[in-house]
Amino acid sequence: MRPRTATESCQLFPPGFTLEAGIALCMNQLGLTRAESVVAVLLVEEHSPTRVMERLGSKPGTVRSHLRSIMTKLGVGSSVGVVAVVLARLWAAFHPLE
Fold first, then answer.
1. d(CA 39, CA 64)
2. 43 near 13, Cβ under 8 Å?
3. What is the dihedral angle through the alpha carbons of 68, 72, 73, 74, rounded to the nearest 10 degrees?
4. Among 3, 44, 94, 95, which residue has the fewest nearby CB atoms (within 10 Å)?
5. What is the 3-state secondary structure (H, E, C) of the chain?
6. Of the candidates 32, 30, 58, the residue with the CA atom closest to the CA atom of residue 46
7. First vs last Cα of the chain: how many Å apart?
8. How many Cα atoms sit within 13 Å of 12 on the Cβ side?
9. 18-74 pLDDT tens trace
C-alpha cells in the first residue's frame, strides 16, 4: 500500500460536497453571483487566483475583478479571508454540529 499524499490526507471539503452544491451555497447564502461563486469555490480548491485563472481559461483581470467583488461582499481583505469564509460556510452547511 502506497503512502497517502498530503492532498489525499487532508479532507478540505466536507462529506457530500460537490462543486455545484458549493456554487449554489455561495450564491444563496453569501450573495455572490454565479461567476463569483465559481471563483470562490475554485479558490478554495486551487489555493491561488493564478491556478483558478488557468483552470477557467480566463484572463487574469477577470479573476482579479471577481475576487475584489467577492472580498467586498464578504468583508474580507484577502483571498485567504475568502477561503476561510467559504470553507466555514460549506462545513456548516454540509456537516452541521449536532
1. 10
2. no
3. 100
4. 3
5. CCCCCHHHHCCCCCCCCCHHHHHHHHHHHHCCCHHHHHHHHHHHHHCCHHHHHHHHCCCHHHHHHHHHHHHHHHCCCCHHHHHHHHHHHHHHHHCCCC
6. 58
7. 35
8. 17
9. 889 889 999 999 999 999 999 999 998 877 888 999 999 999 899 999 999 999 999
Angle at alpha carbon of residue 12, lines to 86 and 37, rounded to 5°: 30
8 Å CB contact between 93 and 12: no
pTM summary value: 0.81
**Would you state the cell numbers that stand for residue 48, as one nine-digit string?**
491561488
Q: In whole angstroms, what is the distance from residue 71 CA to residue 62 CA?
A: 14
For cell 502506497, what's the residue?
A: 2
User: Cell triple for residue 55?
Assistant: 483552470
